[in-house]
């Protein structure tokens, strides 16, 4: 049994997971194609940070959404420990992040991922994300893919 809860990006369990993610991505891509945002400097109201824990309360995955003033958000730092993959935890984590983003008036989520992270791309596609053009602050990058998902076309419908 796994639980998904909100957590501070400065929590030691989160920093450990993000360090593992950074090591993984740094081995795949050059520094200029690694967009490793430090989440600890963001104000609480701009950030959704979640952690997945196993039965023993070990942190085995994390993910974040950075909320923008225009009602969009960017998915960041999604990671599941390799020993826990294949159990649909990524889907559950994305759903939890999307639900929380929607509750905070976020209508669209976007993300950047690398071309070598095929399992991540398949996860995002299964969860309804579609390819799109690069969005600010990114420019085109041959090693990056950009995706987005509309959570609700009209936020007034979310309250019905």
TrEMBL record:
InterPro entries: Acyl_CoA_acyltransferase, Bact_Acetyltransf, GNAT_dom. It comes from the Bacteria. Keywords: Acyltransferase, Transferase. Residues 4-152 form the N-acetyltransferase domain. The keyword Transmembrane does not apply. This is GNAT family N-acetyltransferase.
